[in-house]
Structure formats: C-alpha cells, structure tokens
Amino acid sequence: MSWEKRKVLVTGADGFIGSHLAEHLARAGADVTALALYNAFDSHGWLDDIAPDERQSINLVRGDIRDPHQMNALMDGVDTVFHLAALIAIPFSYDAPGSYVETNVKGTVNILAASRSAGVRRVVNTSTSEVYGSAQFTPITEDHPLVGQSPYSASKIAADMMADSFYRSFELPVVTLRPFNTYGPRQGERAVISTIIRQILDDSCSEIRLGDLTPERDFNFVTDTVRSFILAADLGDEHLGQAFNSGSGRMVSIAQLLDLLRDISGSDKPVVTEDARKRPEKSEVMALMADAGRFNEASGWSQEIGLEEGLKQTLEWWRGRMDRIRPDASYMV
Questions:
Q1: 277-280: which pairs have CB atoms within 8 A and are 24 or more residues apart?
Q2: Among 14, 172, 173, 234, which is least packed by CB within 10 angstroms?
C-alpha cells in the first residue's frame, strides 16, 4: 500500500527510532503527526536533526501519552498509529519503577483506548526483545516465555498484554513488533554501541569504560528496524493480535562488538570494566538472538544492513557530531 497522504501518528517521534520512522514516512508522502514529549527547551529531540524542508512537512506536536484527553484529540482521522513512546533506560528503571508503569503501561492503554474510539485502521505496538529475559533457547521465537528481569522489561510485558487484551476484547486492529537491539545514527550514549564509539573518538577518554562484556545481543541497523515497522503496519488482517520478532538471527557478545569497533576505528585504547555499569546479577539478560521466521513469512522482511557495515555508518555519523557531544563522558544511568 502507498503511504501517500495517509494520516499517521508516531508517538515517541523525538527518540532514536521514532525520528527515523517519522522521517521515512514523511519522505513516502504520509501526513505525519510526530508526538514529542513536552519540554521547556523548545526541543523536539532528534526530530530537530531532520533536514529543515522535510521537517516542515511533519506536524510536530508536543505532549505526553500519559494524558488520555490529548491522545483522544490526536487520533482524529488517523489511519495508522506507530506507538514507540516509552521510558527505555533499564538502569533508571531500578531507581524509578513506578514511572515506567505510568508511561509504558498506562500510556499504552491511553493509546489503545484512543485508537479504539477513533476507529484507526492499524496500531503497531512497540515491544522489545528484553521481554524474553535471558534466552531459554536460541534463536528466540515469539513463543518463548516472557520474563520480567528488570522493571523496564516487566512494564513492556504488561504493555504487550494490554495490546493483546484490546485485540481480544474489542477487536482492536493491533500488531506488536519486537525489535531486537537497534543501533545507528541518533542513538544516545546509554546504548552500548554509542558509548563505545564516543569513548573511542573522544580524545579526553584515555580508556574505554564498560560493564559486563559477556552478554550477547542481536544487533540491527536502524533502517532495517524502520522497514520492519512499515511492513508491520500493512500486514494482513489474519495477523492481527500477533507479536513479531524483528532481528538478524546473529548473536555477538559485547566483547566481540568492542573488537569490531576497535578494528574499524583503528583504536588501541585499553578497556576497563566498571561495576557501576553492570546490571544486578539476576537482572542481566545474558543472551538474545531472534528467530524472525514468523515475520519474514508474513511480510518478507529480513535484515539488509550487516553488522560490520552498520557499525561503519554509525561510526562516521559520530565523527561528524564530536563537536556537539555532551561535555561529560561518564556513565549515563
């Protein structure tokens, strides 16, 4: 289906993946409303990095998914909702778990209820591979048990179950997409790839400080993840109410990832592990690797940008932003 003039709402459009998705949809001719969290700094997050002519074609709205009245108002005439807004920082979820319930669970309920009232054609609910916890088998299918190993992942499990309940109870046309670890330009330093690259390129960092190097992840470049959202929005009605993994099926450890980035960049900085960067032992997810067979069969999606190529592109983006990095290279919670 063409996206030309289709009215879409992207929540969390100020974030890493959301800004890329809103940009892609605008280029495809969609009528995009991009919801950014209200702030007092006249900022729309990463949407401010979009080229001015493309940014002008997007309806930029500041707000908060925790407000059901505003969500109802935003749904008028909307064809497709891409719901990405969430609190995502796992370490901060240990400090403020209640805020994750308010945003990720109650906020999602507001989006689902408003979508139902407005009669939208499709809702794409954003989940995460973290809902599976440490892999009990690999590759991970959508039938893997859901295990809340952090307050963040528990809140996302609850949000997924609310989406499922709205499909079962009210026939809301919703699908849930579970992207495995996404990386690329515009990702913040809380993410492992970004924090490694920043420390590699920053002359003020004499060493690369990381946490546990043994966890393994399935990394996917942001353009591949955006494409998975686009395809999920147009899945046939027979797939409504289902969850779909989006991932490469390749798993690498943080240590292997570090070696790849050092080879690509030519860095020989020493590596130091810090306890402050490690998750509590029972909360750390040790292995994640996607089985995206269900999504591939339903949509034809597969990864197009391999890890090595994606890391090169991400490194080059960071090289162009080193004059605009935050002044402190210390650990971000």
A1: 277/209, 277/210, 277/211, 277/212, 277/331, 278/211, 278/212, 279/90, 279/91, 279/150, 279/211, 279/212, 280/94
A2: 234
Tokens of 112: 């689902």
Mean pLDDT of 257-280: 95
Decide if 216 contacts 228 (C-beta within 8 A): no
- Over residues 200-256, the pLDDT tens digits come to 999 999 999 999 999 999 999 999 999 999 999 999 999 999 999 999 999 999 999
Reduced to 3 states, what is the DSSP secondary structure of residue 142?
Answer: coil
Rounded-to-integer distance, Cα 141 and Cα 155, Å: 20
Q: How far is CA 139 from the centre of its chain?
A: 20
**Which residue blocks in 82-221 are alpha helix, DSSP H?**
90-95, 97-100, 107-118, 151-170, 192-201
Contacts of 21 by beta carbon, 8 Å cutoff, 6+ apart: 10, 13, 82, 84, 226, 229, 230
Residue 40's Cβ-side half-sphere holds a number of Cα atoms within 13 Å equal to 0
C-beta neighbour count of 5 within 10 angstroms: 9
DSSP-assigned letters across all residues of 22-52: HHHHHHTT-EEEEEEE--SSS--GGGGGS-H
312 assigned to some structural domain: no
The per-residue pLDDT for range 92-151, each reduced to its tens digit, is: 999 999 999 999 999 999 999 999 999 999 999 999 999 999 999 999 999 999 999 999
How many Cβ atoms sit within 10 Å of the Cβ of residue 211? Answer: 19
Q: Supply the range of the domain harboring residue 66.
A: 7-183+221-246
End-to-end CA distance of the chain: 41
Residue 333 reports pLDDT greater than 80 = no
CATH code where residue 54 lies? 3.40.50.720
Residue 329 pLDDT: 85
Domain total in the chain: 1
Decide if 17 is inside a domain: yes
Taking residues 269-275, report their average pLDDT: 94
Instruction: For residue 88, give the nearest of 226, 195, 219, 182 by alpha carbon.
Output: 182
